[in-house]
TrEMBL record, chains A, B:
GO molecular function (one): L-glutamate gamma-semialdehyde dehydrogenase activity
Pfam family, one: Aldedh
Recorded GO CC terms: cytoplasmic side of plasma membrane
NCBIfam families: PaaN_2
SUPFAM superfamilies per record: ALDH-like
Name of the protein in question: Phenylacetic acid degradation protein PaaN
Record-linked InterPro entries: Ald_DH/histidinol_DH (IPR016161), Ald_DH_C (IPR016163), Ald_DH_N (IPR016162), Aldehyde_DH_dom (IPR015590), PaaN_2 (IPR011975), Proline_metab_enzyme (IPR050485)
Residue ranges occupied by any Aldehyde dehydrogenase domain in the UniProt entry: 93-503
One GO BP: L-proline catabolic process to L-glutamate
The entry's keywords: NAD, Oxidoreductase
Length: 554, 554
């Protein structure tokens, strides 16, 4: 075990340093290139994925399943994947988690951190397999599937390990306390323990099955809590592969694999509520809709981290090059068909137009430039299909196709986006609607999917006010703003900071408001109703354990 | 302002270092000696206090009071103090707090930390005045009044300032992020802000009006939140003096004094609920009974820190010198007549007795030794009255006098403790009752005041089980244990750590389970129902602000 700790210590130290420097750092290269991952890595990963189709998933070290279940289907093929997972009742899962608690909590933080970092090496060896699994459950493009579910997720997991390790070792394990009492010194030996809270439950979402799951999973684990991973029933395979890698490491070191379990819903029985309400479950990480998220937050006696829905805004005030801005925003709204929690939805444009250099470009021309950029991007057969991917669920597809607004104007209608390899791909190009700023009820909710709302405001002050108001009241995870005016910029920073929303200013070229970088950008702030699962600020880890001290005369 | 920051930087740096080293540190000497605080300090402080009796308290920089209110009385004199405070309606208090928010949050953490440290210097200059105010509102002895409300409180306040400053400066204000993209680098300028949550409310208790108030008060302030201090209506003056000192510094630096306001209940109108429910109030620190504490915790959209009631245990297994142990415990149970949140209540003694060295001392003899130690201590006219102090409230006095148990046996009856200077002092010596371990309903609640319950258990294993069970289910803030057996010790540490309760082992001599040391002992862990207001772990400060990031192409 000492050797294992030493082997991973440099990675951990570098990660902690990166967390605090917040300059660029990635432990896992995001480029799926043969030079980095090996000439056969992609092929082997695809073959491994293909061999799982229609099979029982037997890798998990969780004995005696009650039945075999599975309901995934590929958004590209609109066919079942046919993978079947072992099902266990919540009572069994919780009892097994509790059974593993003592041995796991008694390890030192450095031991847990090393074992979990080793599990990420295992995950890395399966990045391509995870990528195909992600593509055929979420509808993400190949590249996004690789990056988001592989290296980016692993980096966020390493972040959580590093942050958890750092916080648990921030106070001494032992010290001598010597108080001068005048004629003598009072001397005490004091020790402290970072005590884990109990069983952790991590409830995943259908669109980012590993990226949104691994931070809470590894944060709970590194702080000594056994975890039960309850994925969305339509996106199990990517995280099942990660759980299998963690179990492999646990088992190799003589620990109980049930310290980290997969909990799959049966086809006719959803188990999230029962798990969440189990008294032994003390920590819950949740990604998904706000309604269930609020139920999770309402449970007494649980420490909860959520990422729920929100409405993300773009504020257009002034810029140097409108075409470049429009291209950047068209990409952001099209990327994975708006199914990212960071995708922009509401685009606030002043009625008087947008100042571009010395010129004032009229409102209508701004709208048309945006619409042209979107349609140009999506219609480009070499680019469009690989950006928009597929819609994860048929329900989203149907809802987006039936979207209707009172008043306003449809600027761009949705339509299919032909995929070069998958004829059956469930696709839909972005819809653009124009709505008056007064119709706030029409743009104050998240419209999940490829929807761009252009909201005509009196001026930038109203744009800022509305963006901040929506973030405060309904939540927001990202905000983009374009302004060349330093005073307006400060006003946006000030108001959006109070609304707990990070802002990307003046993005053009190859960086997008949707993206955030591990070790640098905090994802979700906790400052608005979109949630408090901030990857990875100190709060995300320290609430998972308790400091308890002991003392005795020396 | 720069000069102010420089002047206090060394204090702040030392405090941060102390927080992490957790060795002995005190910025404010606890000894009320003329050599330290000046030859006239005690006399001047007493005179200053005396001059406030029967007067309007006009120091606060809060204009236009709606009325003058006050209902304090001295537990030593059982006479009203007659001090009248300005009353403001909750709406006025909240509006004024909000009006001060912008200027306060826009200061840098280093500026706020320096101003608040300066306010502690002002508090230090009034330690003796605060001591007399504390004595004549809480009933604490002179020495405890000085130490707890003066230097110990100021140290805990400095802890909160230091922890808050450190956490807010843990990530860079600005950095350049440069990502290699193959042929070029993507370069972003990134900045972060620690954004305060909003108005803070601090609800104080009647027994430790500054010690339990200043940590939350200074933690909220240093993180940029204006605060409203709502003391217990019977213990206003000590904290009013502290608030006045903070306001003095704010005003001297051209800031609004309403960044820190005193909010006193009117004689016929309690305002805590109205303040707590105000939408602008985002942070609440609460010390007091569990019922109101649970109401505070149930409020949605608030970040809450509580210290509620608990039942503290002593586990007697084995020791080297029973007489010394009994003396130590007698002192602990008598100190301020059991009105400390850390006072022990339940003493678990195995039916077979306690092993003392090579000998097994029978149960009855252990009980008698404890009772003799208590009665000997209290009956000593030179010591007793100065240890037990007075009972803060007539209600506690009455309740303790009427305590009745089903079954069991009264080992020692309560009685008055004559005070050498105050004939009218409201005193009551500790009551000792013996209860069988099966009657858990009789010892599972906090019996506030001088009450010692001796619970006969089957063995030490049952003692540990009961102590941990009570802590987990009903809360505990301290635990004392006596054992010479390393295995038993580890078992106690393990079980009590899971119950979120710190343990003091084998205390004899001049250190007591009730006491905890600033910069070293975490007070309250968050790991059981007694509360989560942990002085001062990182969680106690980081939940008061939100990290928000901004980025822009460089």
């Amino acid at each position: 075990m000492l050797e294992t700790i030493q082997r991973h210590q440099a990675t951990l130290d570098t990660a902690i340093k990166a967390l605090h420097g917040r300059t660029f750092y990635a432990a896992f290269p995001e480029n799926p290139s043969p030079e980095i991952y090996g000439a056969d890595a992609d092929r082997l990963g695809r073959e491994a994925f293909e061999s799982l189709r229609g099979q029982h998933f037997t890798e998990l070290l969780q004995p005696a399943p009650e039945q075999w279940v599975g309901q995934e289907e590929s958004p590209y093929e609109q066919q079942p994947l046919g993978v079947k997972y072992p099902f266990f009742s919540p009572a069994t899962l919780v009892a097994r988690a509790q059974a593993g608690f003592d041995e796991w909590r008694r390890l030192k933080p450095a031991q847990r951190a090393a074992l979990l970092t080793e599990a990420l090496d295992g995950m890395r060896s399966r990045f391509f397999e995870i990528a195909y699994a992600t593509m055929h459950t979420t509808g993400q493009s190949y590249t996004m599937s690789f990056q988001a579910s592989g290296p980016h997720a692993a980096d966020r997991a390493l972040e959580a390990i590093a942050a958890g390790y750092e916080e648990q070792t921030r106070f001494p394990e032992e010290t001598t306390w010597e108080k001068p009492m005048g004629k003598y010194n009072l001397t005490m030996r004091k020790t402290w323990r970072a005590v884990p809270k109990g069983v952790g439950l991590v409830i995943g979402c259908s669109t980012f099955p590993t990226w949104n799951t691994v931070p809470g999973m590894f944060a709970s684990l590194v702080t000594g809590n056994p975890v039960i991973i309850k994925p969305h029933p339509k996106a199990v395979l990517p995280i099942a592969l990660v759980v299998a890698e963690v179990q492999k490491v646990l088992s190799a070191y003589g620990l109980s694999p049930t310290i980290c379990q997969l909990a799959v819903d049966a086809d006719d029985r959803l188990i999230a509520r029962e798990l969440a309400e189990a008294p032994a479950v003390k920590l819950i990480d949740y990604t998904g809709g706000s309604q269930f998220g609020e139920y999770i937050e309402s449970l007494r006696g649980k420490t909860v981290f959520t990422e729920k829905t929100g409405v993300n805004s773009i504020i257009l005030d002034s810029c140097d090059d409108l075409a470049k801005v429009a291209q950047n925003l068209a990409f952001s709204v099209s990327l994975y068909s708006g199914q990212m929690c960071t995708a922009p939805q509401n685009f606030f444009v002043p009625a008087a137009g947008v100042r571009v250099g010395a010129e004032l470009v009229p409102y209508d021309q701004v709208v048309q430039t945006l619409a042209d950029a979107v349609s140009g991007l999506v219609a480009n057969p070499k680019v469009g299909p690989h950006i928009v991917g597929a819609l994860q669920s048929a329900a989203t597809h149907e809802r987006v196709q039936q979207l209707a607004f009172e008043g306003g104007r449809t600027v761009l209608a949705h339509g299919p986006v032909a995929h070069p390899h998958y004829e059956q791909a469930r696709t839909c190009s972005p819809t653009i609607h124009e709505i008056d700023a007064a119709r706030i009820e029409q743009f104050s909710q998240e419209l999940f999917g490829p929807v761009m709302l252009i909201i005509k405001t009196r001026d930038t002050a109203e744009s800022i006010h509305l963006a901040a108001h929506l973030a405060r009241e309904y939540g927001a995870i990202s905000c983009g703003a374009y302004t060349t005016d330093a005073r307006v910029k400060e006003q946006i920073m000030d108001e959006m900071s109070l609304a707990g929303t990070p802002v990307s200013f003046n993005l053009t070229g190859n960086i997008y408001v949707n993206q955030n970088a591990g070790f640098s950008d905090f994802h979700v702030t906790g400052g608005n109703p979109a949630g408090n699962a901030s990857f990875t600020n100190p709060e995300f880890v320290i609430k998972r354990f308790t400091w308890v001290g002991f003392r005795e005369p020396a």
